[in-house]
Design goal:
Layout (H helix, E strand, L loop, with lengths): L2 H20 L9 H33 L3 E2 L3 E5 L8 E6 L2 E3 L2 E3 L2 E8 L5 E4 L11 E3 L4 E3 L6 E2 L5 E3 L7 E7 L2 E8 L3 H4 L1
Antiparallel strand pairs: 1-4, 2-13, 3-6, 4-5, 6-7, 7-12, 8-9, 9-10, 10-11, 12-13
Bound molecules: FE2/S2 (inorganic) cluster.
The site of FE2/S2 (inorganic) cluster (FES) has 11 residues, from loops.
Length: 189
Amino acid sequence: MDDKNQDHFSEQTNQESGEQNTAPKRKNEMSRRQFLTYTLGGTTGFLAAGLLVPMVRFAVDPMLKKKTGADWVKVVEESKITDSPQSFKFQVHQVDGWYESTPKHEAWISKDKAGNIFALSPTCKHLGCRVEWKEEAHEYQCPCHGARYTLEGKQLKVANFPLDEFDVKIENGFVYVGTLHANKESKKA
Ligand code: FES
């Protein structure tokens, strides 16, 4: 190798070694790969959150809403109610989260001794069979195990509790039935 070439080689070697030495990596400097990873990760997370939040809200929102149902259901003309209980069937529209239904209900409706209209559930308080009003015995009777109840729904035999009672209101000549609750009518009798 002649002197000229030797010089050129030395110059190149110095340049290469100079490049390696003059740019030492700083400890906290972010590499291109890290930058791309963070950027892509952040963008993906942002897009995923944008999709997930409405989906979760869509799924959960109905569950947080209060169960709703018609407060009062028009059942029968007031004039048709007598001292002797009669069975009336009615439907209640209910919304429970995503689930909408219109279950059928039944009430035995009659007048008490003071002439006030009241409505009883036909569900026996023993094991849930359907009770029937027996005019000749002047009481409700359950065909399953022989429970008996008074006109006001008070238990006489087998069952330990009186028949449940619906709220009732009279409006414009019609009987409206509301929510079901523990019997109050039997305490009046
Ligand atoms: S369910 Fe009515 S008596 Fe048993």
